[in-house]
Amino acid sequence: MKVGQLLSFVDDGMPEHVRGALAQLQDSAPPMAPELAASVIQRELGGPPEAIFRSWDPTPMAAASIGQVHRAVLPDGTPVAVKVQYPGVDKTMEADLAQLDLARLVMPTVWKSLDADAITTELRARLTEELDYRLEAANQRDFAHWYAGHPFIQVPAVVCEMSTKRVLTTTLAEGSRFAQIEGWDQHQRDLAAEAIFRFVYRSLHDHLAFNGDPHPGNYLFHGDGVVSFLDFGLVKRLAPEDRTMTLEVARAAAISPDPKVLRRVLEQIGYFMPGAPLSDEVIANFSGMFWSYMTEDRPVTLTADWASDTVRRYLFKDEEFREVDRWGAIPPQYVILQRITVGLFAILGRLNATANWRRIVLEIWFGEPPATPLGELEASWRDGVCGSA
Predict the structure, then answer these.
(1) Over the stretch 141-156, which tens digit does the pLDDT of each residue have?
(2) Active-site residue flag, 206
(3) Which of 77, 162, 192, 195 is the most exposed place for a label (fewest CB within 10 A)?
(4) Residue at 66 is within a domain
């Protein structure tokens, strides 16, 4: 299901009927029987849902890979969303991950020099974390705290007393789904895309964390750039040195392009073997695919075709980059970062988003003045937060 969710919006070149079928995995996977959901509530919260909540809708409002979400109302009248884990999915998933060597299944066909064991360990650890809703609750509490009062980034609050390892209760967020905003006018889509972009880049820079599960089902849209962010089960925490190195890559790849510096940084991180028989230009051109949209100081439109082509060229290479297979790799600590990069590209491409992405990155990562009206709103909020600290 994770692969299906990603493919449904990353590869725009798939036949439409295939992509449409996979898109159902974004927020409407097949639900479990109402009795099963009720049994989880009984076991985790100590009573049937009708006794625990003032009201409970047995029909899920969304369903995904390891759980489904029900609408309910707390005894004090607060509307909430209650995520209920499928019974037994933890044992099934743990058994699958123990037997399935995820990295060896796919990655060696893409990167011959990849440390498959390390990649498998990282993927298994991150995916297993999703099974414990207590970890997700802690992640979501962090993000809700970091963005409290933000003018356009909203994160539902966790209701701690109604949350356990297999049940997660949060305040209810309502808004338009991704499929709906694809029909909005382009200005509104641009604002929504900028909000998502800022959320990703701000979280990486300021908080050394990001939601590693970017797909359309994890957003609700309210217009004028206001977005609610859902599902914090797969969150990757970075070390300060990871942020430093990522900023150095961005600078050498796009802000002040320098192939020699870029090669040195990428080798230091572990993306390329030191001294590999690849030219600086080949490494810069290959690695620069993920940064090309911010090299020029002008508005750039990101399309679905561009996103699909970039991902395909990166994963499967063309003749120009064929030798990269032998000498390139993905450092384990950056596996989930690659996933969110690919997902972010797909989201922005589907929205046909236009912005001066360079200016926004310079603002968020390098401390330059606000680049857009949303940036000005965010700067005012940050001034208020810092002033009250």
Answers:
(1) 999 999 999 999 999 9
(2) no
(3) 77
(4) no
